Queue: 4 jobs
Job 1
Amino acid sequence: MPIQPSPPRAWAEIDLEALRHNLRVSRESSGGSVMAVVKAGAYGHGLEEIARILAEENIAFFGVANVGEARRIADSGVATPIYLLGATWSEERAEIVARGWTPCISSLDEARHFSELAQASNKCLRVHLAIDTGMGRGGFVARGLPEILSELEALPGIEVEGIGSHLPSADEDEAFTCSQFASFRETINSLGGPARFKWIHLSNSAGLLGYDNHPCNLVRPGLMLYGISPIPGFQDKLQNVMTLKSRVTLVRTLPAGHGISYGRAFVTTRETRVATVGIGYGDGYPRHLSGNGAEVVIRDQRFPLLGRVTMDQIMIDVTGSEVTAGDEVELFGPRIRVDEVAAKAGTIAWEILTGITPRVVRIHL
């Protein structure tokens, strides 16, 4: 008799209908076309699987961080245009031209190199002009832009079809973000107005939810697609996409005065029923949750984490319950939101989602 694989010890359930719902919210909130940001494995949700689903939704672009991500999407059979969100390295550019991916341009040197490669391949490469309105990570500053754009448009093999910038603090600094929007509008007007570009884009999730996006006709939702609003007031509009789960592997009763986990950072003060759960920081469940009030859900009830998170296992206080080995455990999801976990770990939801490691099986529902 063939051996049947055992079920996973740690897995992430990905709700694809919730993903589609959140995409609809991004469209309704902005009124523009959508570049779905799927970098970092679609924020840990599974790059190829998420790209195939979103490709059915008539989006304008996929936004990726590098050519490796672009290649994986293209090789999965998805035909949606792919946009590279950051500056490219010289050795990446020949593949970008050959594949027809859309880069953003932050320097004339980049543009000239792309022009040479496009001419050599007898191609016309569509590019977007990147403007630095305050992020400090890439793009042209406003000084001298009309002349720079004229030079870009004169380069053979290059078509400047879009212009974009990035918001560094739309979820933290409203006054600065409003000034960024104003600066971006002024820049576009100085370049001849919105009609000069097919695509105009500035807003990430926080930008499209919380601000007037005029004159942008393209938005770049990332985190909100996966069910988390960077601006708390909009959270009720979104649906949870990833639920991280594991199983109880062992339940024991320990006496008072018994240490739990490495360093004996927690010692029982009473007889305690302890459940061991098969997940740890090797799966992406943060070690920084140790001693910071983290909880999990088992049998629809919250239970506290005991001691330090280890590489492969955690311990939970289930005293007074009927929890038993084999029970499912929700680490985050609809009942414990990932941003709550992030706050207790002293980090952000983006890092938690993208930090879920490959040994956690993704199950797309």
Note: The CA atoms of residues 124 and 157 lie 4 Å apart.
Job 2
Amino acid sequence: MSYEVRSLNEECGVFGVWGHPDAARVVYFGLHSLQHRGQEGAGIVSNDQGKLHGHRDLGLLSEVFSDESKLSRLRGNAAVGHVRYATAGNGSVDNIQPFLFKFYDCQIALAHNGNLTNAKTLRKELEKDGAIFHSNSDTEILMHLIRKSRQVTLLDQLKESLNQVKGGFAYLLITENEIIAALDPNGFRPLSIGQMKNGAYVIASETCALEVIGAEFVRDVQPGELVIINDEGLTIDSYTTDTQHAICSMEYIYFARPDSNIAGVNVHTARKEMGRRLAEESSVEADMVIGVPNSSLSAASGYAEFSGIPYELGLVKNQYIARTFIQPTQELREQGVRMKLSAVRGVVEGKRVILVDDSIVRGTTSRRIVQLLKEAGAKEVHLRIASPPLKYPCFYGIDIQTRKELIAANLTVDEIQVCVEADSLAFLSEQGLIDSIGLNFDAPYNGLCMAYFNGDYPTPLYDYEEQYQASLEEKTSFF
């Protein structure tokens, strides 16, 4: 799936800073480190002496701010930003965040990473009460709830509203006076606090974004918490105590950058351990281990280390091809893989190869990579997947919301092996994944969300329940 073209996509990334004289540029650098979380659009809103100004557009961050003047106009010592992949809502500029609202009594900008499971119901209720939506993103719902609240202060309005939205969310708001961050009661999405050398506080979706601006990690935002940052400093509050960790396991498997830490666990270390455990669970005789660039390289090195089989560079990535999304035809999907990856004939020819990947979604890419290796002369290709089979949709911020998209929901492991034309196929066990990541929260699966693999969702699905039940009956053909 490292090069799935493309059935599984990231959520989004948020970044904010308060107390830096060139805040918008700091946010730009922070978002650049989060670009892997969304490539459809980007935006930044700055606070210039209590006045909010923003710019947003479709495209990569560097494209949105290709004109230096667009960034230099965002003056002020505080700013928030967002890189987007559309988990809900289409790819129009109206859905690009942060959303900037200018009311008669205040200005607020809002950015969101995740997906609300009761958005449809809330939107219907709000529209019946006269609310007018400018986007079809579920992010806008929170602002309507805030304005509808009869609580006196913004903080109390926000707390009341956060208890009405359900699902996965990391929110970042900026007002004339402060930045406020909030995390859902299960902590599906990662969110961290850092501090720069000048004392400025930052909020980021991943810790890798703290490193690039020279910020020191302070702490993770915990489920149900509110973080308030203003001229007085940092304050931690909460909007609910009904919390239980269920961190998205796909963050560790694929989404997060390997140099990020989530809940104190380094992503590269977790992936390497997944590879080691995979080798322990499903060994096979071979001449070399290779990984699919880039997110599978850590797992491949762990597999090689445990098995004692040499790790080799058998696949090369074309660095200059932008990420492509789901292609409309099989031929185009396969061509997309060929543009992105090349097999190294001089390494794999005549050899028995263990190919390590992080997951299989549709299987299209897995089959094409196996074919690439065999066309380059590989004698055998044994496919090893450093996660359990993806069998169930996600409703918390990943764009898989039906089982018919997932090959493992429709076929057995043996049938998948035949489809992808591998000489053997094995997946990491659920317990192997849990143990490899190594969280120890007092919660099911040690604090991981494992719903993608076993259908055990940590929350009610609300608006998606009917869709989910229908998806259990769905069957589709692959290839």
Note: The CA atoms of residues 362 and 407 lie 5 Å apart.
Job 3
Amino acid sequence: MGWKTLDDMDLQGKVVLTRVDINVPVEGGKVTDATRIERIVPTVKDILAKGGKPVLLAHFDRPKGKVVPEMSLKVVLPALEEALGVSVAFAEDCIGSKAADAIKRLPAGGVLLLENTRFHKGEEKNDADFVAELAAEGDVFCNDAFSAAHRAHASTEGLAHHMPACAGRLMQAELGALEKALGKPVRPVVAVVGGAKVSTKLELLGNLIARVDTLVIGGGMANTFLAAQGIDVGKSLCEHDLTGTAREIAEKAAAAGCTILLPSDVVVAREFKANAASEVVSADACPSDAMILDAGPEATRAVIAAFGAAKTLVWNGPLGAFEITPFNMATDAAARAAAALTREGKLLSVAGGGDTVAALNASGAASDFTYVSTAGGAFLEWLEGKTLPGVAALEQA
């Protein structure tokens, strides 16, 4: 661990510029999913407990450097106050006199939220002058936004070079979980990679085959790998132009001693809709007028057996079209099996990515995984072996 945490910092009486990700879904002026807000509570409370003054920096949506009233962070204030259990002050800018005055008025034990950092072009450009303006009123920088750490923005990367910097509790938990899952894992390691397209996860697959013992491929991606073996996948979602790439990945996996697990049987249907008439067939027997929408029961048992033989699990992407019944069955069954093994202390399980979190929540298994990341792009880039600017800046600090 090459970065400091809140435990390493003297915060008494200091203004702690705290980068958080509270870019949450909103409908009708109300937050509909407060998960990301709830995840920052330990960091804010620990800063307060150490005598610091948490000043929250965050983005909301994509205003592209302009003030867009409907993208104001003011909309999250009620949910933020409910999660923290304290009133939260709000400043109508993140720099300049409005921010400075609000920070000066902030009493001990108070929390302040500054307006959307992306209202300024300097945020996404990581402009040095904008970074200096953000830093002007702060004493310490705390980055608790792992989900934005793949962006080299002023509030995610630039600030770490201007003042003493550390990771918040959420950032600490994310990095710790990923280090245990892929950095220095207990073997055997199994990874689940699912989703619609191979093309979006080429770098991920390339990195994982050198680092895991078994690679489970599911969803539409599995269809491309089946087609690469000369199997007719009917009308299934399939990137036929990438079958050569799929074969190359399979060859590299074999050379690296990584077993690729593809479905031996599949669930097929003629319509992509909930409760469509479906049947289970061998993976090499998909009717020409049907599409593969889920892994079959035999394939699901094989995945669960792979979990049972493993010590560490990394999961990114569903095994089928989990959004509609009955094509959620493989994902649900595998998720529940992983959760049970985790509860029993037999498996360290780390999962992340938007569809993954939704699928695990739908299955009821998420709460029993060792760690479920709220990050999307950052989680994926970490699995791809890329350096995350926000994390690298903390290490350099």
Note: The chain has two domains: 6-170+389-396, 185-364.
Job 4
Amino acid sequence: MRPSFNRILLYVKDVQTTCAFYTRHFGFQCKLQPDDQIAELISPHGGVILMVHKAAKSVKTGQVTVKLVFDIEDIEAFKAQCATQGLEFGSSRQADGYRFANAKDPDGNSISISSRSFATG
């Protein structure tokens, strides 16, 4: 038996708000069964499925122990597109052959856009 890593569970304050955020800015499709407590955000481009679950009152959202990183080839064009939709990223940073920028989702979870997977060398 081989384990595979295909899902990340996000605990959030408002499932609908979070689903709308990732749908609008990152193109995910939201799948929620009527009797299910977990929404699934699925990218039409493949990759990890984000599972979205209402956080209990005792859960503190927005911890910085996890950052969701999205592969984006043209960081500046994507930032400009997101800005027109109300999502502002911080300054773009140059790393070893790639660029990245950071933001937060509605629950304070750290997200990053990165061209690392497109870097050559």
Note: The CA atoms of residues 13 and 57 lie 9 Å apart.
